[in-house]
Amino acid sequence: MKAFTSLLAILAAPALVMTTQAAEVPQALADFQLPTNGAQGVCFLISPALTKDFEALHAKALQKLQTLDQEKIKGFVESYNPDNLMPYMAEMWDSAEEYESYKKAWGERQMQTRQDIQGVISLKDTEDGKWQLLSLLVNRANNNGTPLPFSNLQYDAATNTWISSYGELTATEFKADDDYIYHAQTGTDWKLEKKDSFTHINQMLRLAKSADGNGVYISFISVQRSLVSGQVLSQQAVTLLYPIPKPSVGGNAPGSR
Predict the structure, then answer these.
(1) Over the stretch 171-207, which tens digit does the pLDDT of each residue have?
(2) Roughly how many angstroms between the first and final C-alpha of the chain, as a whole number?
(3) What is the pTM assigned to this prediction?
(4) Residue 145 contacts residue 4 (beta carbons within 8 Å)
């Protein structure tokens, strides 16, 4: 109960400035400047907000896609990433100018936060060479807190992997330009793919820093599908934004000694 109360105290503060001395984090995590070992940072649950013009043009293009031959549809689906600006394919548009309007509408996207929910995050050293990324979402209306699923993962600095109940999530570089849904950023994806006789499991944890260096995006996806029916058996997806606090005069930046 005391730990939960301390998290709520952080949320009530008008601004968070890190002054506590924190443990040195593993090299692969250090650039994200996450609060560590007792220091707690405010984060926000986010989602994209797209304009009505974009949604109308997007829906129209997808309708045209359905009229194309199966090979073109297959090629498009295999290359398309919904988190990025949809690439130009002449057959999907009335004109090149219409695609330019679509591209402009994509550029007007916004990032929205849940006003009724506040988050707290901290990187914890478990003192056995492992780390945990702990996070709690608190409902402002009733102060009920819900831990996020990636809080159960453990980071192994020796192998640069996150460990879940299904196995190891291994690292690959992540880099996005300004056409990405949350704009330009760089970081690391840790991924797991596992199949057994009945299920197909995909998990991903992403830590990525914005191009301006002011924020860290934390994304977690876990999907379990039945290999028998093809149905999704379980699915979790969340994206957080952690604005990196500016150190106070004479203080240390989070994650540094």
Answers:
(1) 999 999 999 999 999 999 999 999 988 999 999 999 9
(2) 29
(3) 0.83
(4) yes
- For 178-184, the CB contacts below 8 A with 24+ separation are 178/211, 179/84, 179/85, 179/106, 180/83, 180/84, 181/48, 181/83, 181/84, 181/109, 182/46, 182/48, 182/111, 182/210, 182/217, 182/239, 183/210, 183/211, 184/210, 184/211
Residue written as token pair 């608190």: 138
- The C-alpha R_g of the chain, in whole angstroms, comes to 21
Q: Please give the distance of CA 213 from its chain centroid, rounded to a whole number.
A: 16
User: Do 232 and 222 contact (CB within 8 A), yes or no?
Assistant: no
pLDDT (average), residues 80-95? 94
Q: Is 207 strand, coil or helix?
A: strand
CB 188 within 8 A of CB 203: no
186, 180 Cβ separation under 8 angstroms: no
